[in-house]
UniProtKB/TrEMBL annotation:
Coiled coil: none
Protein name, UniProt field: DeoR family fructose operon transcriptional repressor
InterPro entries registered for this protein in UniProt: Carb_Metab_HTH_regulators, DeoR-like_C, DeoR_HTH, NagB/RpiA_transferase-like, Tscrpt_reg_HTH_DeoR_CS, WH_DNA-bd_sf
Keywords of this entry: DNA-binding, Transcription, Transcription regulation
Pfam families in UniProt: DeoRC (PF00455), HTH_DeoR (PF08220)
Residue ranges annotated for the HTH deoR-type domain, each copy included: 6-61
């Protein structure tokens, strides 16, 4: 009987992850009406079976190299961690800086936090630009083809404009970070991000811990070219990343 109940629990977990792409430990405790320790064991077993990926505070669906969540799906994942990363990253901005802020949900929270005087922000996100203008921050928006799922301007026009600009600091996102590279599922977004890194004096990748250890289709740059702002210091890969670059654990 216990085996049947476990099988049913695990099936419900898989169905929930396939539907939502990400589940928290607390939500599964409520859904399954069982203890946290039982849910943890079920998640660990499913992770061993390669049916999901364990992340801090829950689990997520295994993604293919080219799979990418929409901004809405990303916005409900690890919200508190992303808020902490954004609050910390605001302190990396100095008055008078010219900065680039990439499209993405963590960077959207950074836009909300900016309060330094005399800052100029360049962005390839329509939504970021609107919020920056509302805050009366000097804003330059990069044009181009808008990718619907991520709200990022990409393509030849965006690349041409960025090629003419330099930045004191850049804040970008990445779908995956391993010991050697930061990665993204989209070739055109990778081109944009790489150009931004090359044109910035310093680049910060804002990424919650679920991105650490994940690998996507396209390599952007090596980790030695960026500094990482993340929220969780117990991932084995972080020690390897620290050998190559600075890691801020918030």
């Amino acid at each position: 009987m216990d085996l049947i109940l476990k099988s049913e629990r695990k099936q419900l977990i898989i169905e929930k992850i396939n539907s939502d792409h990400f589940v928290t430990l607390d939500s599964l405790v409520d859904l399954l009406n069982t203890s946290e320790s039982t849910v943890r064991r079920d998640l660990d077993e499913l992770a061993t079976e390669k049916k999901l990926r364990r992340v801090h505070g829950g689990a997520e669906k295994y993604q293919s190299l080219q799979e990418e969540l929409s901004n809405f799906q990303k916005s409900i994942k690890n919200v508190h961690e992303k808020e902490s990363i954004a609050r910390f990253s605001q302190n990396l901005i100095d008055e008078g800086d010219v900065i680039f802020i990439d499209a993405g949900t963590t960077n959207e929270l950074l836009v909300r936090e900016i309060d330094k005087k005399g800052v100029t922000v360049v962005t390839n996100s329509i939504h970021h630009a609107a919020k920056l203008v509302e805050k009366q921050i000097k804003t330059l928006i990069i044009g181009g083809f808008v990718k619907q799922s991520t709200d990022a301007s990409i393509g030849h026009l965006a690349v041409e404009q960025l090629s003419k600009l330099n930045f004191d600091k850049a804040f970008i996102g990445a779908n995956g970070i391993d010991a050697d590279f930061i990665t993204t599922p989209d070739i055109e977004e990778a081109v944009i991000k790489k150009m931004v890194v090359n044109n910035a004096k310093k680049t910060y990748v804002l990424a919650d811990a679920s991105k650490v250890g994940h690998v996507s289709f396209v390599k952007i740059v090596g980790v030695e070219q960026i500094e990482l702002v993340t929220n969780f210091g117990q991932h084995v890969l972080l020690d390897k990343i620290k050998e190559k670059t600075r890691v801020y654990e918030v």
